[in-house]
Structure formats: structure tokens, C-alpha cells
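Figure 2 data, in text form.
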Amino acid sequence: MVPPIALPGKTLSKVRLLTIDELKTKLGAGLASVSLRIEPGAVQRFVQAIDDPNPRWRDMAPPTFVVTIGFDQIVTLLSSFGTLLHGSTELECYHPVRPGDTIATTVTVTNVRAVQDKAFITIETEYRNQKRQRVARCRQLVISY
């Protein structure tokens, strides 16, 4: 049996549990959102972690940086599903993210498939800046077992 999923309420600390069947009824609905101001130190720590000395990262974040914004939402959404395995990540970038930007995310579950005791969950996160421009979109497949 696939365990229920954690669905954040108004804050990430308030969580209620959904089963796979209940989650399927929420497909396409924004399940979680967060807004975060991008601090220069966070970008620099990310650049150090990926070991990329490219000087352009002084003025903007590497494209993959956006995946870290709101990542805790996805972990919270899936926290009750037991063991999680990363299946895939697709990232589309539209505008650069710069230190000082405020990025708002919306997390949506776009597909859920249960096979025996496994669940295949596709999550899409949209990232918008303070000008409401879409800066990126990320689709991830998570497998729980």
C-alpha cells in the first residue's frame, strides 16, 4: 500500500495527509507556494558547491539555482511517502535570477500513478520574479516505495 501524502495547509508547519486517490483529485491545483528574496550569499554558496568559477555568477545565479528555491516544499509534500527516489528533472529557464530578486514559487502535482506499492508522482514548480515574469519552470518525477 502506498502511504498518504503530506499536503501543506496555510503554512508548511500545518500538514494534513492525503492518500494517492485524494491526491489525484488535486491534480493541476497549486498545492504549495513560497516567496523568497535571493540573497547574494546564497548564490555564492551555491556557486561554491557546484565548483563553477564562471565570473558571470557574480551578477546572476546559475540556472540550476532555482531548483533549490522551494525545495523544502516538495520534501514536505512527500514526507509521508517513505523512501523517495529521484526519477528525473526537466528545467526550462526564461529569465536570469539575480541577487536581490524576490522569487515566488508555485508547486503543482501534475500526475500521479500508483503501481503495486510504488507511486510515481510528477511535480511541476513555477518560478516568478518580483515583476511577475516567469523565470523558470521545473518538472520533477519522484518515485516513492
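Caption note: The first strand starts at residue 5 and ends at 8.
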